[in-house]
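Methods: holo model generation. Sequences were used as deposited, without trimming of termini or removal of tags, and paired with ligand SMILES retrieved from the corresponding compound records. Each pair was processed once, and we did not select among multiple samples. The sequence and adenosine-5'-triphosphate SMILES for this entry were:
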Amino acid sequence: MSTTPVIEVENLNVTYRDFHAVRDLSFQVRSGELYALLGTNGAGKTSTLETIEGHRTPTSGTVRVFGRSPRDRAAVRPRMGIMLQESGFSPDLTVRESVALIGRLTRRDDDVDRVVDLVGLTHKAKTLVGQLSGGEKRRLDFATAVYGTPELIFLDEPTTGLDIQSRDDLWTAVDRLRENGSTVVLTTHYLEEAQQRADRIGLMHRGVLHREGTVAELTRTLPAVITFTLASPAPALPVQAVIGAGGSVRVDTFQLQKDLHLLLSWAQDHALELGDLSAGATRLDDVFRAIEA
Ligand SMILES: Nc1ncnc2c1ncn2[C@@H]1O[C@H](COP(=O)(O)OP(=O)(O)OP(=O)(O)O)[C@@H](O)[C@H]1O
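and the model returned the structure below.
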């Protein structure tokens, strides 16, 4: 892995008239990593990505991609593949023609039929884009990112509208690209996808990078939760808990394994059943809820 960051954002500000959408944003994406830029609605992710992709000029601050300005399109653009939320292919072109067009526009080399196959559209290669289903269009959008196996790939809400099989296929294709050394920048509102796949996450809220780190780094600041119900009055619990109506019990803990063990032993010793027992590590959803709270 090279030590030069693929993307360097320093004190980026983006304003729309008097509205400050991105404030003094700084972060880096390293070569070969999958970086998820996540955030609340209106946080400034799209404004940031558009700047990195070279579609928008920063109001102030600097953005470097492969060490160059993203406005240096001739140098930077062929090295990046971008899957937008909507690509806007002409409805009158076939799938195959559209993929061939991607090749001409990106100036990357690839085999059109290989890409059509990679995105799972071989059986629709001669179908007009206007006749594709929503999920099939999304797969065609994915072709824009993967054509020519670019070094840097932007995936903006890539799995929205895809069924589970298509999602799995897309992530398998992304894994292959990463094995080839591609760097991936992902935005998604499906937090479990980011939780499973991102090396690092940047969490934006109201124009600033609220938190940044690996999933473990982001989640370890919040407690894990154990919940269960007790059917009848029970002896004193072995851990601190909040007991609610109907015998519901909630334990917030930074020592999930230890407290779970204590509770299970306690239940065993007193021949108690812990109804609807659920215990889970802190999830990214909880980190999000904590921001918005
Ligand atoms: N062209 C524009 N003119 C004025 N305000 C804009 C413009 N584009 C975006 N904004 C505002 O800037 C803020 C950030 O928008 P942006 O689209 O970057 O957020 P986002 O994080 O991508 O949001 P979402 O998750 O909802 O798509 C929002 O409040 C939005 O209303």
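Residues 164-179 form the longest helix (16 residues).
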